[in-house]
Every structure is written in structure tokens, then in C-alpha cells.
Protein: Integrase catalytic domain-containing protein
Organism: Vitis rotundifolia
Amino acid sequence: MFPHLFQGLDVFEFHCETCELAKHTCVSFPISNKRSSHPFHLIHSDIWGPSTVPNVFGVRWFVSLIDDCTRVTWIFFFKQKSDVNIVIPTFHSMVQNQFGVKIKSFRTDNARDYFNQILSPYFQSQGILHDSSYVNTPLQNGVAERKNGHLLNTTRALPFQGNVPKSYWGEVVLTATYMINRIPSQSFYPHFKTSNGLTPRVFGCTAFFHVHSQHRDKLDSRVIKCVFLGYSSTQKGYKCYNPSARKFYISADVIFIENKPFFPKSSLQGEISMMEDSPCESFEPLDLPHVSTHGDEEPESSEPITPESPNFTTKPQSSPVLASVTRNFPQFPKMYLREKVILEQKQVQESNSDPENEITVRSDPPLHTQPGETSTDSIDNLD
């Protein structure tokens, strides 16, 4: 309101210790569009893991190496996190031999696995500058973090489409990297003439691997049913896996059924409770106590009903049990069903001339009613 009061004053003079203690925030990172002009001048790296489920080979970790110029990615697996000390020198030797270029800078986060008695002397001996982010600041290693996020998003999508179990996550990561590296982008247009020339296939589909004549008999099957798990990095062929034999097969002589996943859909999806399928089949029969028809005295000839699934077999009773007597009797839903069976039993016994014959009352379906009949009491009891 009165700007003339602040003329000639510096803004930094209004900063005090109390304001810093109460309002201090992190510095915002500016958008950086800088990119290396030559491949392998700068390599970004990040370690992912451990996985809760080990791969089929027992690995739980992988390290991603991304070229800053082309964004081409290499993935290396290892069982222990300390094995990164072997992976990085091996990768540098491959780059020098295949492309004739030396890595100039290496950028990672502040993980201790990059700073040890093996990698630090190696970087110094090779003249490689090792840049790292400071503590709790993954934003400074944003290229590797975003690439890992892209890889994991694709890795989650592929198994869902083909019903592939989690134990094959390593092959899924390699397949996702294979496809992402061959997708054209603003900075990189891959040359398909130098690729292996294999036609992309649906991950997790059913594949039939051809068995050559020297490995089979004349009456044996000519193929092995496998699951398609990606592409080989060292051979020109598809990578197929036979779970029963626990073997990988690599060949170009493979027939695919891409609309048929090898693994069936998980039974956990859309599972229906047993109580919804059969609400009464899993109930145990109750041992009902004797019911007295005259006060607390028990009838002289009273025999308990012996349940024999699925039929109840009883002998003629001299005195029927009244349905209205409920004193000192537990209120179970099946009480009324049992009494109804006895009443129906009495009507059949009166029409039977030979008292020595046994009467069998069938309880099919579980509500003790004949097919096509509906019992109102039974429906109420279920509710």
C-alpha cells in the first residue's frame, strides 16, 4: 500500500532466522534440455531391487545403463547387489570393443554400491568422471529414474495380458527393454537392418518349438509346447521356455498361437465363495435333543434320528412329536426341517399296512423338499 516506505531496501534484509526455521523449502530444479552430442559420452545408471519373488534363475536385482545421447538401455541381472562391481567394467569393455568409444562420464545416485574399493579406483584409472546426486535427491538422477519407471510400467502390463506368473519377471524386463529400444523416438531412430530381423510376437502366448530329427524318434512328437518369453540377445531366435522340463529353447523354427495364452487365467480372479455356490451342503447335521410331549417326562419309545447322508432311515414311532412343543429346545433353523420330515413320515406310515417295512425319506435338495416344491419355512430360515 505504501511502496515508498520500501525504497532503497534490499529484499534479503527481511530474511531472519525465525522465517527460515518455519518456512524453509527445497530449491526447485530447473528443466534441463542438455543432452550429449555423442553416444556414450554420458551414461546414467540406477539399481533396482530386491524383488520379492526371485526370477527363474534366482536373481533379485538388476541395474539399468542408459546412454544420454540415444536413450538406448542395457539391463544386467545379478543375485547380489554387490555384483554391480563386475557389471560396470564389463559394460565399459563392451562399449570400447564394439563402438570404439570410451565412456567419459558416469552419473548415478548416492548409493554406496557405486562408491567402494572396486569401482572408485576403476573410474579413476579409466579417466571416467563419476557424478552422483546428494542424499535424498533422486531428481538429480532423473533420466535413470524415469527410464526405470517406464520399464516397470511395461513390465507390469505384459504379464497381465498373458497371465504370466511373477516368477518370470526377469524375462519380462528384458522383453520390455528390447521393445522400447526399437521404438523410434525424437532422439533416436533405430536401424532395423542391423537388428535380428525377428517379427515381434505376443508375450506369454503359446509357442511350439520344433524338435529336429536327431533329437526325437520317428513316433515322437515333432514339437514341444512352450511359452514365449522374449528374444535372445546372443542368437537370432525366439526364447521359449518349457515349465515342465525347466528348459529354455532358442530357435527361429517356432509356431505361435498369439491369441492363446500359455498359462490359464488365475483362479483368484472372479473367485466365487463356496457359500454362494452351495449354501447348505457344507453344514454339519445337528444332534437334536429328545423332545418331551408331557412336561419334562420323556416318551417311553423315543429313538433319535440317525442322519445318513443323503437319506434318513427311521422306524415307525408309537407317539408322534408335536411341532408346537418348543420348551427347552434350541432355536436352530434345522429344527423345523427335522420336524417336518417326521410329520411327512407319519403320513406315509399311516398309509402303510405293513409296520415292519422301513420308510426312507430323501433329502434332495438340501432343504428336505421334493424337486419342484418350495418350502416357505426353509426360505425364511435361510434368510
